[in-house]
């Protein structure tokens, strides 16, 4: 049934999310240098290329670089209160190591912010969203090198000084815990994953965590009104059977993800993580300055949520396909066309877990359904009848409301890919998430015209009623 009562608080930040490398295009315009994404034509499904290739859909994306005003107006038409976007590091520092930023790149984001302000949309900015400058990746092997901390700090300070009075909400790194599973995409680490030593991998993790805390420290000096958040992949994990060994496997899997939030919220490494490093034979290089920097903790915790997993201690049980985090498929749950299991209740579970653990406000900054949409004509209007997406989002938002009713302090919710974009994992455009259909295909053909899907008006009503129109 539909209820007009709503647990969502006044001022709840409804909106949507994108990433620069998946929407902007214009990869060689405006003084931009190459990022790792410019040589990832298959996403994480294939090896990087030496140079950009024509089959890399991200080189054009959906042409947001030229169409940002039109696109932000479309988002405003749904009543968006917030818009999450990222800044392309290599637009600001083309090679990553310049002493001075690229003014043309900075001016582009000034124009994006102008459009957000024009429509009364609160910007939510990701500083680094899977787009390490290619120059830094190749020079330093990405975040394996301590030199990356200073490069990132210069970049973050530049953003805070330029936009600090215009942007309140900031995220330091997108899905920072993903570096364990996708080291090139997440950490700019050129060494192939199967050749990367545990010491180098976890040293890269440490450098990112220090850089994140340093950005928080800089923001409090330069932009004291800013709210700084970490961003994690949330992956609630269940034991496959009641066997205590499976429950222990769940605890270990959880620990590897929760450690990133523990450091961001508590300012030090938890004992279980230090034990994991010892058992891996890893001795991190941690300076006294590092330890002091890590004490600068975040104001809120943001996260992506797409699916849950199971874990088993049985080595013969196979992990599921299509998920970079591994895990075992849950036999009780349906799955999307890309094999991602659909579990709305898992969102309520993980929200309670995070709130109880860290006591920081939460912000759901990615959630959505990737699907193959079909553009059709209804009453003379081209659209997509995406009832499957409406059902998915409705059911997840109902669980967000339940978590809020449980007492979980929640700032907002931004659907992933609110306008169709190039998938990070597969580099496809046919894996669509948006309320707005973009006419571009996996072979690069299409007009780039925008069309509102059925879900566009549905989400507009959800926002207008502050969640009151959701079907419970």
From TrEMBL:
GO molecular function, one term: beta-glucosidase activity
A single GO cellular-component term on record: cytosol
Keyword hit for Repeat: no
InterPro entries noted in UniProt: GH, GH_1_N_CS, Glyco_hydro_1, Glyco_hydro_1_AS
PROSITE patterns the record matches: GLYCOSYL_HYDROL_F1_1, GLYCOSYL_HYDROL_F1_2
Active site feature: 366 (nucleophile)
GO biological process, one term: carbohydrate catabolic process
Domain of life from the UniProt record: Bacteria
Record Pfam families: Glyco_hydro_1
Classification via Gene3D superfamilies: Glycosidases
Keywords noted in UniProt: Glycosidase, Hydrolase
Family of the protein in this entry: Belongs to the glycosyl hydrolase 1 family.
PANTHER family the UniProt entry points to: 6-PHOSPHO-BETA-GLUCOSIDASE ASCB-RELATED (PTHR10353:SF122), GLYCOSYL HYDROLASE (PTHR10353)
Name of the protein this chain belongs to: Glycoside hydrolase family 1 protein
């Amino acid at each position: 049934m539909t209820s007009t009562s709503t647990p969502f608080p006044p001022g709840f930040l409804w909106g949507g999310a994108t990433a620069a490398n998946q929407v902007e295009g214009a990869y060689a315009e405006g003084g931009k240098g190459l990022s790792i994404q410019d040589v990832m034509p298959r996403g994480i499904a294939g090896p990087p290329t030496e140079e950009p290739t024509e089959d890399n859909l991200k080189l054009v994306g959906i042409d947001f670089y030229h169409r940002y005003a039109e696109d932000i107006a479309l988002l405003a038409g749904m009543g968006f209160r917030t818009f999450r976007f990222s800044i392309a590091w290599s637009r600001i520092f083309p090679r990553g190591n310049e002493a001075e930023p690229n003014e043309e790149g900075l001016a582009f984001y000034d124009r994006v912010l102008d459009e957000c302000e024009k429509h009364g949309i609160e910007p939510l900015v990701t500083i680094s969203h899977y787009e390490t400058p290619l120059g830094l990746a190749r020079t330093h092997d990405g975040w394996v090198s301590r030199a990356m901390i200073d490069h990132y700090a210069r970049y973050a300070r530049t953003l805070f000084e330029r936009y600090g009075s215009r942007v309140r909400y900031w995220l330091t790194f997108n899905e920072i815990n993903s570096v364990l599973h996708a080291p090139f995409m997440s950490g700019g680490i050129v060494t192939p994953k199967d050749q990367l030593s545990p010491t180098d991998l976890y040293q890269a993790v440490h450098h990112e965590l220090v850089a994140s805390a340093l950005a928080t420290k800089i923001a409090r000096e330069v932009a004291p009104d800013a709210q700084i958040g970490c961003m994690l992949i949330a992956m609630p994990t269940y034991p496959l059977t009641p066997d205590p060994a499976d429950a222990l496997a769940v605890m270990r899997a959880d620990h590897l993800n929760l450690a990133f939030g523990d450091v961001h919220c508590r300012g030090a490494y938890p004992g279980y993580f230090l034990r994991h490093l010892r058992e891996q034979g890893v001795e991190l290089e941690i300076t006294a300055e590092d330890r002091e920097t890590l004490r600068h903790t975040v104001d809120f915790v943001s996260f992506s949520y797409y699916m849950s997993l199971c874990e088993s201690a049985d080595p013969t049980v196979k992990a599921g396909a299509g998920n970079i985090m591994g895990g075992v498929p849950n036999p009780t749950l349906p799955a999307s066309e890309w094999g991602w299991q659909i579990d709305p209740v898992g969102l309520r579970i993980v929200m309670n877990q995070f709130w109880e653990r860290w006591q920081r406000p939460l912000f759901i900054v990615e959630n959505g359904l990737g699907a193959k949409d079909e553009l059709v004509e209804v009453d003379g209007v081209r659209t997509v009848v995406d009832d499957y997406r409406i059902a998915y989002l409705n059911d997840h938002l109902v669980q967000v409301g339940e978590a809020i009713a449980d007492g979980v302090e929640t700032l907002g919710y931004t659907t992933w890919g609110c306008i169709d974009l190039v998938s990070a994992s597969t580099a496809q455009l046919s894996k669509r998430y948006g309320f707005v259909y973009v006419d571009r295909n996996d072979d690069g053909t299409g007009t780039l015209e925008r069309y509102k899907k059925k879900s566009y008006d549905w989400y507009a009503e959800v926002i207008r009623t502050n969640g009151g129109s959701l079907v419970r």
